[in-house]
Amino acid sequence: MNNHTSIASRAIDLTTRIIDQTGPRLAGTSASLAAADLLHKELSEFADQSVKEHFMLHKGAFLGWIRILVAAYLLGVVFLWLNQPIVTLVLLVLSLLILVLQFFLYKPFIDRLYPKKSGCNVIATIEPTDEVKRQIIVSGHHDSARIFNFFIHQPKLYNLRVTGGIGLVVFLLLTSIVLLFVDSGLFPLILKILVSVGFLLTGQMWFFASSKGTPGAGDNLIASAMAVEIGRHFAEQKLKHTRLVVASFDAEEEGLRGARAFAKVHQDEFQALPTTLLNVDCPYYLKDLFFLTSDINGSVQLSSELAEELVAVASAKGYPATHKPIAFLTGGTDAGELAKVGVKSTTLMAMPWNNNERASVYHTPNDTVDAIEVAAVEATVDIFGTYIEQQDK
Asked: What are 144-189's pLDDT values in tens digits?
């Protein structure tokens, strides 16, 4: 794509303007809905069709498992000292089940316990000049994340504090099983003391996430802005047989609820026409660019073929790129929800992606436009634009 530099520049400008007007955009708030309105207005200037698709979400539910786990641990320790290990066992099994379903698998297990709010996806289509033979979706999400306090205070201890805290919950579960059979003597007393002291680590998880949101420039408004500007380009430079869909999802940070709503509504369309999803999340640093081959903590397979094709495009243009599965316990991206309904999908990311090392601005108040490398935006636009042009030919 010859003009990827100017397209990237417009995307950065659009990101700046929306953040200036809306600030942090937690899903289910007026700020996130305002961002959707602004994106819809931009898309309406050039798209053949631009719509807002509203859906319902339960604000705060996705991370609700954290405080449930902490509360269950504390109560479990109390019941151990009351010589009721069976109660502890039940509490811990239920809390770990919530963890697995709500976070490992992104299932809405406890959503109904949280307030219902409105979310809004923005979807636009640019039709080709001739018969439609395929459609390609370019997407990002416009909601921003809650500030993760563990990334602000002692970020190098993040993995210990989270993984260690969850590990102690498992240890307490095993302790309760042991105490079902050994209920007296020095050994049970030592176990009770150990799990009581362990609450110092598990208990701090109560303060894992702030109620405030980040500016959300790199995670992930820039991705939505890039999708808009790529759409603008192909509205001017028409494709011949490829329908281009621009999608900006809401509530990605609430467990991919916006992408899930979109996939449910449009599932039949995806089956009727070959559909590819080019999703973007956290495009901070060019040197760390890669494409996902799995999603949602490894529970969903993305398209290895698509990832390899995009790596080939990137390599041909001299960009560093690779593909790899998502790291366990690092969450998921919107591509996972579309892959579930048969869409050929991947997500481009450009930052270190594991629990030991991530961008220093990730899920912090410093996630501003200045934190994004212009070169990473230019490369993303170039790779996706070139891929779209190749597919159309």
From this structure: 999 999 999 888 888 889 999 999 999 999 999 999 999 888 999 9
Please report which confidence band the pLDDT of residue 237 belongs to, taking 50, 70 and 90 as the band edges. Answer: very high
Please determine, for residue 218, whether its predicted confidence score (pLDDT) is greater than 80.
Answer: yes
Question: What is the token pair recorded at 216?
Answer: 């959300």
Question: By the 8 A CB rule, do 122 and 43 touch?
Answer: yes
Entry pTM: 0.95
Task: Work out the end-to-end distance of the chain between its first and last CA atoms, rounded to an integer number of angstroms.
Answer: 14
Residue 355 pLDDT > 70: no
Strand partners, 244: 126, 136
**For the stretch 203-231, what's the b/e string if a residue is b when 16 or more beta carbons lie within 10 angstroms of its beta carbon?**
ebbeebbbeebbbbbbbbbbbbbbbbbbb
Helix (H) / strand (E) element for 267: namely: helix 257-272
Q: Could you give the domains of the chain? A: 4-61+116-145+214-392 (3.40.630.10), 64-105+152-209 (no CATH)
Of the candidates 15, 166, 20, the residue with the CA atom closest to the CA atom of residue 102 = 166
Residues 29-44 as b/e (b if ≥16 CB within 10 A, e otherwise) read bebbbbbbebbbebbe
